[in-house]
Amino acid sequence: MSVIVDTFIAPPCAAEINILHQDAHLLLIDKPSGLLSLSGKNPQNLDSVHYRLVQDFPGCTLVHRLDFGTSGLMVVARDKAINAAIAHQFSQRAVTKTYGALLCGHLADDEGLIDAPIAKDPALFPRMKICAVQGKPARSRYRVVERLVRQNEDGVSLPLTRVVLTPETGRTHQLRIHCQLLGHPILGCDLYGGLLLAGTEKTPRLMLHASALDFVHPVSGEPMAASCASPF
């Protein structure tokens, strides 16, 4: 069996983490695009959400992750017990996650459900693949907000669709590969076709943002309805 080697080196990220909520038990943050959630094995990938936060909040741990290029809401536990309590809500699908995205092209339908199992693709690491045999169940809902045409810096007209995405499961790269399956990859997605449409080659980032997160505070029992406006 071949050993998978991760050769990715993250470029420096000057953007700061914005702390949206802080209490004795957890943090809600706005992660910038271009920052790893966790430091990698390669020492050149030391900078990350966790590395930065643990300097000021010793003992904090990530309950979940966002992809390197994805921006937006993350919940961070300030100790292991809180992590376990919130992670249980995630595992029971009691947490609602909402994302905003720009997709390449104009979607025909105003809303829909993508139900397609996802598996690792060792031959094309770090990509995932749709696989009915080996894949784990994965479901995502989408709703069109607007269809638009943007001019890029070279004057090329780009047909785009702004959507709200709601994953019902939490597979790696789920929204990215599900949107590719729709035939409308997320603009700027280097792994799943978001840089292939004419005029998209210089897109500065992955146009995917975690915009809302709803869960129950593990200590107070109060509903937490966090939101974070999209930068695009």
Automatic annotation (TrEMBL):
<dbReference type="Pfam" id="PF00849">
    <property type="entry name" value="PseudoU_synth_2"/>
</dbReference>
<protein>
    <submittedName>
        <fullName>RluA family pseudouridine synthase</fullName>
    </submittedName>
</protein>
<dbReference type="GO" id="GO:0000455">
    <property type="term" value="P:enzyme-directed rRNA pseudouridine synthesis"/>
</dbReference>
<dbReference type="GO" id="GO:0009982">
    <property type="term" value="F:pseudouridine synthase activity"/>
</dbReference>
<dbReference type="GO" id="GO:0140098">
    <property type="term" value="F:catalytic activity, acting on RNA"/>
</dbReference>
<comment type="similarity">
    <text>Belongs to the pseudouridine synthase RluA family.</text>
</comment>
<dbReference type="GO" id="GO:0003723">
    <property type="term" value="F:RNA binding"/>
</dbReference>
<dbReference type="InterPro" id="IPR020103">
    <property type="entry name" value="PsdUridine_synth_cat_dom_sf"/>
</dbReference>
<dbReference type="InterPro" id="IPR006145">
    <property type="entry name" value="PsdUridine_synth_RsuA/RluA"/>
</dbReference>
<dbReference type="InterPro" id="IPR006224">
    <property type="entry name" value="PsdUridine_synth_RluA-like_CS"/>
</dbReference>
<dbReference type="InterPro" id="IPR050188">
    <property type="entry name" value="RluA_PseudoU_synthase"/>
</dbReference>
<feature type="domain" description="Pseudouridine synthase RsuA/RluA-like">
    <location>
        <begin position="25"/>
        <end position="180"/>
    </location>
</feature>
